[in-house]
Design a protein that fits this description.
This protein is α/β, with parallel strands linked by helices and about 400 residues long. It has two domains: about 200 residues, Glycogen Phosphorylase B (Rossmann fold, 3-Layer(aba) Sandwich), CATH 3.40.50.2000; about 170 residues, Rossmann fold (3-Layer(aba) Sandwich). The chain has a seven-stranded parallel sheet, sandwiched between helices. A six-stranded parallel sheet has the order 10-9-8-11-12-13, sandwiched between helices. Helix 1 crosses helix 16, helix 10 crosses helix 14 and helix 14 packs across helix 15. The protein is globular and about 65 Å long. The termini are close together.
Length: about 400
């Protein structure tokens, strides 16, 4: 097949779950198909150079996406989010230059399929009815959960506004496109029920078991590790909840318990957590996440907001690190509480599950072994890419 793949960013550095899922899928599709990749580009020459790993031709669209923080452009975008009908996360990636490039490519090339990777790329595709939407999350659910956990009335107001707009926008796009590929059966069922989507199917999350399996190399010892992009709001909120409400309960019994937050671009709120606590480490971007997983007694996913599926859970399992997660954190994954993962939604129970693993190496080993067997036998990226390929046909 000849595929046009449209995304809001290039795939290196690969430091977010959605990037990993796309990269691993595309690398395998690229072996069998002609891939034309269009994405916004911030000028990173390494990202463009490495695109040859997963596509035949790359088309970078110069664009500076406003970043979160106290910048004039991002502040203007927040204000625009109050005035426009589209959700702020959609407006953030709207690009007339990308629209023109896609129009030109579609005139000149005879593509068998067009893939819109993530909802945020949708406003840049002129003919959505002809494309397949690769939907890594149900975006409206994420905004609804932000409303539920809003810190202030102002936050709640803004999140409610964005949630309503996302519900309308996401539903309209999902009904317009040729078909939708979700990342879990749970997400597919939500989109069928909430949006009336009929042409939808799911592919599972994958993992490179050989890459993550412990090899006897360097480890970074810690009791508890939380892996993820630390500039993503659900991860930031989850880390704060863990430190403020769960960690004190653990330290009543284990006062020397150490925690590592490993992931790119930590927000000031995350850096603040480590300032007054020598038992907390914030790494920022790391060249290789595996030593942090190999050296941990457990991997945690304390998310109360989010959607899609968490690749970090399967990566932790492949690294033989036992996992403690909320149900939101493990949503959409075929896991079984007490068999291959511990699930807990309140602070007391979450702390108790962590203490159980710290107190009993045998329990931790059993959980880790069962989890590794599951991912190794069922969730290779090659198998996932074959399923994705069939859905494009």
């Amino acid at each position: 097949m000849k595929l046009l793949w449209v995304k809001t960013d290039f795939l290196h550095p690969t430091d977010r779950g959605g990037q990993i899922r796309t990269l691993e899928t595309l690398k395998r599709l690229h072996r069998r198909h002609e891939i034309h990749f269009v994405a916004l580009h911030n000028g990173d020459s390494e990202a463009l150079k490495r695109s040859a790993e997963y596509c035949t031709r790359a088309y970078p669209i110069a664009n500076h996406v406003p970043q979160k923080g106290a910048t004039v452009r991002f502040g203007a975008l927040l204000v625009k989010g109050l005035l426009t009908r589209s959700p702020i996360v959609i407006e953030r990636y709207r690009s007339r230059a990308m629209q023109r490039k896609i129009e030109d490519l579609c005139r000149r090339e005879n593509f068998d399929r067009i893939v819109c990777d993530f909802l945020a790329a949708a406003p840049n595709i002129p003919d959505l009815a002809s494309c397949v939407l690769f939907q890594h999350n149900v975006e409206a659910i994420i905004w609804k959960r932000h409303v539920e956990h809003a810190r202030t009335p102002a936050h709640r107001f803004y999140f409610e506004l964005q949630a309503r707009r996302m519900l309308e926008y996401e539903g309209r796009i999902c009904r317009t496109v040729r078909s939708v590929i979700a990342v879990s059966d749970a997400d597919a069922e939500v989109m069928k029920r909430e949006y009336g989507v009929q042409r939808i199917a799911a592919v599972p999350t994958g993992v490179d078991v050989d890459y993550f399996s412990p090899s006897g190399g360097q480890t970074n010892p810690t009791d508890i590790v939380f892996v993820g992009a630390m500039d993503w709001m659900p991860n930031t909120a989850g880390a704060q909840w863990f430190v403020r409400e769960i960690l004190p309960l653990i330290r009543k019994r284990k006062p020397d318990c150490t925690v590592t937050f490993a992931g790119r671009k930590p927000e000031p709120a995350i850096l603040e957590l480590a300032k007054s606590d020598p038992g907390i480490q914030v790494t920022g971007t790391v060249p290789d996440i595996r030593p942090h997983l190999w050296g941990a007694k457990m991997s945690i996913v304390p998310l109360r907001v989010g959607g899609g599926t968490r690749l970090k859970i399967f990566e932790s399992m492949a690294a033989r690190a036992p996992v403690v997660s909320t149900r939101v954190g493990a949503e959409g994954l075929p896991v079984e509480d007490g068999t291959n993962i511990f699930l807990a939604d309140d602070a007391q129970t979450f702390a108790g599950r962590c203490l159980e693993l710290l107190d009993s190496p045998a329990t931790a080993q059993r959980l880790a072994d069962n989890a590794w067997e599951m991912v190794a036998s069922r969730f290779s990226w090659e198998a996932v890419s074959r399923e994705f390929e069939q859905l494009l046909c």
